[in-house]
Design brief:
This protein has about 450 residues and is mainly alpha-helical. The protein contains 21 helices and no strands. The longest helix is centred in the N-terminal third of the chain and has 33 residues, at about 95-125.
């Protein structure tokens, strides 16, 4: 009973998210996506039912719930992750656990991210989806402006590595939060949490209670956002389809299939890791985590489903609070394997479209850049496109190519988010095995 009171506020939201699953939120989202494509096609130039100006006005209003959903998630992700990471450390009150678990989970996350990017490379190099694209025909239909995407980030040489390592420690945490520098926010939260564990409990109690209140407020905003998910997907798909048309979407079908095949291989890799670390059979594991996967697919946000992920790890996978409350919030921020796989596949795809030969060194550069860019990325919808702009800039691929794939990004974003949360829960089981969790159980 003691553990139930300690995670009550998390369990409340997890129960709420469970209710959304029971109400078939994912079915409503899929229905919204299908209806959005149909309505967008009817409003598009190929049908000519309404004038382009009228269609733009209609789709603009239809996309309003989607934009509100994105704003709510992006607005709340930094305080939610900040509070969750600190509480995940401070409530454990076990420095031995932090010393043992911390380095291992970071190394594990980097390892799986590199595996994911390699799978993305392999699937795109074997299927060659870029060969199925007529660039000139597609560019004539692109109306999406991506000039506001910052593509100036470049990977420095070895001489700049010390400065790069120092820069991940924020000299002004508030400035990092305002700028959306998630990795710096997480580093600050970890330092803050370790310091909170190090002082007397009588001195840390007030701060812990404040952070619990902050986390609960963030979760309330997440509840509000979840109610908008079906309308959000409908509106965004309507707007996208009305602009680019179904013919372009069909032309990108091979690319979509390539990324989905890569995600399936990554999921298979996770199932192997789960079986090796816990002996849990693949179908049993998938059955235990299906609610988290469905909700992540519906919302495209690993941060939004974080409470349900923690509850699932504890209640269905047998992972203690000690590990789940540390690994899941951290994983929702720096463990973006599905996103990393997408970066690798999309980079090779666009290189094929533009006829650019990628050398082995270029692929290594993409891997390093993707690992660095995906770590600390907010677990919010659509952020993969921003990371991709940074990756493309490093290997000389025109960033304008993003406009070719942004129309199908919603489908892939939903799929890779489901894989991302699967990776977080897999990490919980692997860490349970690596750190010998039994030694950390209290009572």
């Amino acid at each position: 009973m003691k553990n139930r009171f300690k995670i009550g506020h998390v369990r409340d939201l997890a129960g709420y998210l469970d209710d959304l699953i029971n109400m078939r939120l994912w079915v409503k989202v899929l229905l919204g996506m299908i209806l959005g494509v149909l309505v967008g096609y009817l409003l598009g130039p190929s049908m000519g039912i309404v004038s382009p100006k009228t269609a733009s006005a209609i789709t603009g209003w239809a996309a309003l719930p989607g934009r509100l959903f994105l704003v709510l998630i992006k607005m709340i992700v930094i305080p939610l992750v900040f509070a969750s990471v600190i509480l995940g450390i401070a409530e454990n009150e076990d420095m031995d656990m932090l010393k043992k678990l911390g380095p291992r989970i970071v190394i594990y996350f980097i390892f799986t991210t590199m595996i994911a990017i390699s799978i993305g490379f392999g699937s795109a190099l074997m299927i060659k989806p870029g060969n199925y694209i007529d660039l000139k025909a597609m560019e004539s239909r692109m109306e999406i402006d991506i000039n506001d995407v910052d593509t100036t980030t470049e990977l420095g040489g070895a001489e700049s590595l010390p400065e790069t390592l120092i820069s991940i420690i924020p000299d002004n945490p508030l400035d990092s939060a305002v700028s959306g520098e998630m990795l710096q926010v997480v580093i600050f939260a970890i330092i803050f949490g370790v310091a909170l564990v190090s002082i007397r409990k009588t001195q840390s109690k007030a701060m812990t209670e404040l952070l619990k209140s902050l986390q609960e407020v963030c979760m309330q905003v997440v509840r509000w956002a979840m109610r908008l998910a079906p309308l959000a997907v409908f509106g965004l798909m309507t707007e996208i389809t009305s602009k680019i048309g179904l013919d372009v979407l069909k032309g990108l079908g091979v690319y979509v299939v390539t990324v989905l095949i890569g995600l399936l291989f990554l999921l298979f890799f996770y199932l192997i890791m789960v079986f090796i670390s816990s002996g849990l059979r693949p179908l049993a594991f998938l059955g235990k985590i299906r609610e988290v996967q469905l909700l992540a697919f519906s919302t495209s946000s690993s941060a939004a489903v974080m409470p349900l992920s923690m509850e699932t790890a504890q209640e269905k996978l047998g992972v203690s609070e000690t590990i789940s409350k540390f690994v899941v919030p951290l994983g929702a921020t720096i463990n973006m394997d599905g996103t990393a796989l997408y970066q690798g596949a999309a980079t090779v795809f666009l290189a094929q479209v533009y006829g650019i030969e990628l050398s082995v060194m270029s692929l290594v550069l993409v891997m390093v850049t993707s690992v660095g860019a995906s770590i600390g990325t907010p677990g919010t919808p659509g952020v993969g496109i921003i990371i991709l702009a940074t990756v493309l800039a490093g290997v000389g691929i025109p960033a304008d190519g993003i406009a070719l794939i942004i129309g199908v990004d919603r489908i892939l974003d939903m799929s890779r988010t489901a894989v991302n949360v699967t990776g977080d829960l897999t990490a919980c089981l692997v860490m349970k095995r690596l750190v010998g969790e039994r030694g950390f159980e209290k009572g």
